[in-house]
Amino acid sequence: MEEVPKVTETTPSLPPLLERQVRQRQPKVSVLKSKLKQGMTCSVPRVRSTLTGFFPVVRWLPKYKLREYVWGDVMSGLIVGIILVPQAIAYCLLAGVEPIYGLYTSFYANIIYFLMGTSRHVSVGIFSLMSLMVGQVVDREVFLAGFDLNEDSKPSDPDVFNGSMGTNLTAGELHSVELMGLQCGKECYAISIAAALTFLTGVYQVMMAVFRLGFVSVYLSAPMLDGFATGASFTILTVQAKYLLGLKIPRHQGYGTVIVTWISIFANIHKTNLCDLITSAICISILVAGKEIQERYKDRLKIPLPTELVVVAGATLASHFGELNSVYGSSVSGHIPTGFIPPQVPSFGLMSRVALDAIPLAVISFAFTVSLSEMFAKKNGYTVRPNQEMLAIGCCNIIPSFFHCFTTSAALAKTMVKDSTGCQTQVSSLISALVVLLVLLFFAPFFYSLQKCVLACIIIVSLRGALRKFKDVPAKWRASRNDAIVWLVAMSATALISVELGLLVGIVFSMICIIYKTQNPKVSLLGRANNCDLYEDVDEYKNLMPPPRVQVFRFQAPLYFANKDSFLKSLYKAVGVEPFLELTKRRKAEKKAKEISSKQGKANGETNNGEVVIGLVLEFHTIVLDCSAIPFIDSAGMATFNRLVKEYKEIGVSVLLASCNTSVIDTLQKGQFFGKNDKDMSSLLFHTVHTAVLYAKNTHAAAESRSEDSGV
Q1: How far is the C-alpha of 595 from the C-alpha of 612, rounded, in Å?
Q2: Which of 106, 373, 524, 629 has its CA at a distance of 20 to 30 angstroms from the CA of residue 244?
Q3: Are 363 and 381 found together in one domain?
Q4: DSSP strand pairing (124-125 vs 409-410)
């Protein structure tokens, strides 16, 4: 690449030159034609491969090792199913729909993911964050449709159940709207909104899978997602707090839900239902105690404690025989019917109202599902296909939306339970779906007397893990201030503004932090370690010697339009010479010297028309740019290099590039930085810093020798 000077006694042997391989790229038209031809061909093996790729269960189920896998799958499926039932009922409070729809959602999501998922351990179903985001949209649209959010929507008679397409005619609920040609009550309208939102969410996810847009998730950094989840957990806690106290206040619509809700709670604190308050205190105590015992003795306990199921069963019996609803006015779940409601096409008329709301749901649902899939795949030694995971979770939303379900996602807690109880394949999801099916067919009506405050307790206690992350903030701050600030901003925006805006603020702020870091990267002057070719930061390491009359500068960031000015300023500051200012000083000095010479000539009667040249005496003659930490440059970065070479050349300083990667070299070659046909490449570009330093020394020595010879 470069012409290496002759090796002297003091010069170590130089590395051999590197020669780039010549790669012949096929024309884009031929590449496109070949891909289209490959994509349009149809054959039996291709059809079989497509179907098995779309339904991975066809590949692994025939290879199922019955004796080895069945016990772990059955146990984990039963345990997750037992946990799933009370959570499915509880999270409907967040989603703003009736409990039966939570059971439907859990049932269909498990069946579909069993057929289409590539992860062996992920549990897909109702997730608190998804339920919260769905509930906010549902409550907003229900309110805009003219329904009263403050009314208790449960039927007073267990024999009265308003079907999803029926008119709600229970006491106090005479208002209805026309939807798809039929009159629709509050409950019907709520699930219609949720189903339309879920359908669009699934469509977006499938489109992301088809167009290979999974890269979107890379913009959701771990600190941002953690902060977002923690802020959403605080919002969930706030929304559920009214049920703990038995207060009947509507969910706030708009921004500042947390602040406004707490103000409403304290304004109505005198209306607290003592029965609900006492029940909540007892249930939270039992649930927390069960969780603590589970964590403390997890090595001894082979299966998780079914604390939620015990609490639900006990609270339901106490409420039923104590007649807490009729005697103390405690809010209960109401009638949960058995069986299934006939499927129905989601209302396309509602989709325009929720089209934007479905975007964050789609992204968050996909991000959590793929991240959990990859995490447990690495832990258990297998691989997953992210694009198929996106397709699977999309179908887990599209298909169930026809069966009165709402948005689903992978859930961390239930996935961890599956992993810890011996799950081997997605057969466990099938077992969990069968447990939910039994409840749907036989046991659902028994939950009529279950108090809503008990469901709120289950939701709040499940948030312990997310809320505990507040204790990790000092450790985050010590490890990385940037990550800690991103976490705090995402958490605060989500909790104090809204969940959707919190997600947007978190993404934008984390990207701004990255841009800021590239605009203000670490820069350093390098020195040489004793008797070796290693150059490092003189401010970070001891016993380094800067090469005489050569400045070695390192810039640790990509060089592009946003940070080119920062690059120039940091370089000028580091080397102590700004070429424009030095050139200006020289011109002023020349002008002043010329004036003095002219005055002296006039005084002596002489005429001096010659130019006076003032030579600059600098501490260095060459700047070597160590580009090893520059991953790429754009046209603005290349123009910056051109500017440096030109401006420093005017004051007698050479600029050399060292340790450039092939991406940077290609960009410079395309922009003819090395001249026509790369004629100056050997004198500007070097493989290592040491080679560039040696070249600079020998070139300068040769130039001085020629200058002395010409002077003689």
Answers
A1: 10
A2: 106
A3: yes
A4: antiparallel
- Residues 210-230 pLDDT 10s: 888 777 777 788 888 889 888
* 403/341 Cα distance (integer angstroms): 7
Last residue of a domain, one of 516, 545, 562: 516
**Strands of the 550-555 sheet, one edge to the other:** 535-537, 523-528, 550-555, 622-626, 654-658, 685-686
Among 143-152, 309-318, 396-405, 672-681, where is mean pLDDT lowest?
143-152
Please indicate, yes or no, whether residues 134 and 77 belong to a single structural domain of this protein.
yes
Any domain includes 610? no
- Domain boundary residue among 455, 487, 516? 516
> Which pLDDT value is given to residue 583?
82
Reduced 3-state DSSP string for 342-410: CCCCCCHHHHHHHCCCHHHHHHHHHHHHHHHHHHHHHHHCCCCCHHHHHHHHHHHHHHHHCCCCCCCEE
Q: Chain centroid to CA 207: how far?
A: 19
Domain with residue 549: its CATH number is 3.30.750.24
Residues 6+ apart with CB under 8 A from 529: 535, 536, 541, 543, 544
DSSP-derived secondary structure for 596-649: HHHHHHHHTT----SPP-PPP--S-SEEEEE-TT---B-HHHHHHHHHHHHHHH
Tell whether 18 is covered by a domain.
no
Per the structure, the complete domain to which residue 568 belongs is given by: 523-600+615-710
C-alpha pair distances (Å), 241 with each of 143, 262, 276, 307, 447 = 21, 9, 11, 21, 22
Give the integer Cα–Cα distance in Å for 25 and 36.
18
pTM score of the predicted model: 0.78
Long-range contacts of 252-261 (CB under 8 A, 24+ apart): 253/139, 253/140, 253/143, 254/498, 255/497, 255/498, 255/501, 256/496, 256/497, 256/498, 257/136, 257/498, 258/234, 258/495, 258/496, 259/496
Q: What is the DSSP letter of 417?
A: H
* Contact of 121 with 402, CB cutoff 8 Å: no
- Model confidence at 435: pLDDT above 90: yes
Question: Which token pair is 200?
Answer: 């669009």
| Cβ neighbours of residue 552 closer than 8 Å, sequence gap 6 or more | 525, 526, 527, 535, 546, 623, 624, 626, 689, 693
Find the distance separating the first CA and the last CA of the chain, reported in whole Å.
Answer: 35
Q: Are residues 507 and 530 in the same domain?
A: no
- Which residue's entry shows tokens 């820069």? 523
Between CA 466 and CA 605 the distance in angstroms is 92
Q: 174 burial class (0-12, 13-18, 19+ CB within 10 angstroms)?
A: exposed
Cα 446 → chain centroid: 41
In tens, the pLDDT along 236-251 reads: 899 889 999 998 888 7
Q: Return d(Cα 686, Cα 411) in angstroms, integer.
A: 52
| Residues 484, 533 within the same domain | no
State whether 479 and 582 are in the same domain: no
